[in-house]
Amino acid sequence: MRVTFLPVFAAAAAIVVTATPAAAQHSSREKQVAALLKSLETGDAKAASVIDARSYRQHNLNVADGPAAFRSLVRSGPKSGVRVQTVRLFEDCDFVFAQSIYERGGPKVGFDIFRFDKGKIVEHWDNLQSNA
């Protein structure tokens, strides 16, 4: 019997190592996502320009579809004292994944998934949990 899990494990480890590059090595999509998330803290409305105005779908029942709903969320962020620190970003095909620490009504940990099409964000999924 031949064991082949070691090469597969080594390949997976190499993917993990290369999936978390230094900040200077982030792709332009990763930088766009980081700026978009930070805009919740800063109120920078320009960051929302990466959202596709025609087809943006928000898979969060508390936020409506479209860039106008996101801009409204951005406008309310600085007033409510939201803080966002994105700690991990990686890209796979048309998707960018982000893990962030939020301060919004107490410390929280967030995980966001953004799908890009033709250079614009067309879908977003998220999960925000209290930091235990």
Task: Please provide a written account of the structure.
The protein has helices at 5-18, 28-42, 67-80, and strands at 57-58, 83-92, 95-103, 107-117, 120-130. With 132 residues, the chain is α+β, with helices and mostly antiparallel strands. The protein has a single domain, classed as Nuclear Transport Factor 2, Chain: A (Roll). The protein has a five-stranded mixed β-sheet with strand order 1-5-4-3-2, covered by helices on one side. A hairpin with a 2-residue loop joins strand 2 (83-92) and strand 3. Helix 2 packs across helix 3. The radius of gyration is 17 Å and the shape is globular. Residues 1-22 have low confidence and may be disordered.
Give the low-pLDDT segments: 1-22
CATH architectural group: Roll
> Which bin fits the share of residues in helices?
25-40%
Instruction: Please write the CATH class name.
Output: Alpha Beta
**Main sheet record:** 5 strands, mixed
Q: How are the elements arranged and paired?
A:
Layout: H1 5-18, H2 28-42, E1 57-58, H3 67-80, E2 83-92, E3 95-103, E4 107-117, E5 120-130
Parallel strand pairs: 1-5
Antiparallel strand pairs: 2-3, 3-4, 4-5
Question: What key phrases describe this protein's structure?
Answer:
about 130 residues; alpha+beta; five-stranded mixed β-sheet; 3 helices; 5 strands; about 35% helix; about 35% strand; globular
